[in-house]
Fold these 2 entries.
Entry 1:
Amino acid sequence: MKEQNELKKGSTQTLILAVLSDSPSHGYAIAREIERRSASALKMGEGALYPALRALETDGFISSAWEVQISGPARKVYTLTGKGHGELARQRSAWQKFSDAVNSVIGGAPHGQPT
């Protein structure tokens, strides 16, 4: 479990951008979508989610607006910006390269042997 938490810390912003690439969403829904897509392997608590959302907004990757609800309080809805789409593409590429490299090491043949 500790390993998953460490990996998630470095991936939180990428996960949020990926969810928002489909449609605008509010914080709670973002967290639940990450959980759903990961078959409950990744749980996103408020302590990680909201600081990451603030950082993404500060960097210009997402924007937010308050949405008034018919019943219940207003909620902040986050939308991926054009700059955010570019950042997500960059992060997906970097993740793929990293993932391929790790898989080559942990699943690869020993030195001097064919792969």
Entry 2:
Amino acid sequence: MAATRPASPRHRSTPQITIRARTPDDAAGVAALHSLPGYRFGTLRLPHETVDNVRKRIEQTPADAVTLVAVLEDRIVGDIGLTPMAGRRRHSGELGMGVHDGHVGQGIGRAMLAEALAIADDWLDLKRVQLTVYPDNEPALALYRRFGFEEEGRLRMFAFRAGAHVDALVMARLRP
């Protein structure tokens, strides 16, 4: 059962959404999520990811990574991962996330990002959280900016997507 986090000024919950740790039992739901065209378009995922490959990747997740899913009516509608860096970069972490095509703009991304950043701040003491995002992903850019992420640069020809090379933006949120 997922623990309920007390409300704080930076964490607003969406009552119908449960944010919890991802498990190998979530492989089918995560594979279905990653197969959605809009979700995939905003990530580096390839089409037709199998449940077995997703399960293997979940089982091989580094122990220090925080991987969460958003569940709505027993269905996975979002996922987020926060991977702390090592060595001289242990003060920073890398973030990646996505929301179900049919649920964009419903607070799922906000709830997942709030929870991941609360863990980054309150449990891992991360001073820097960074991510990459495609410049045409306006909903994601707006969400990240609301949480204090700022653009730091552009990675030209970052990925091959839908038959074309596309740029990505590097964004980071710094905490003193």
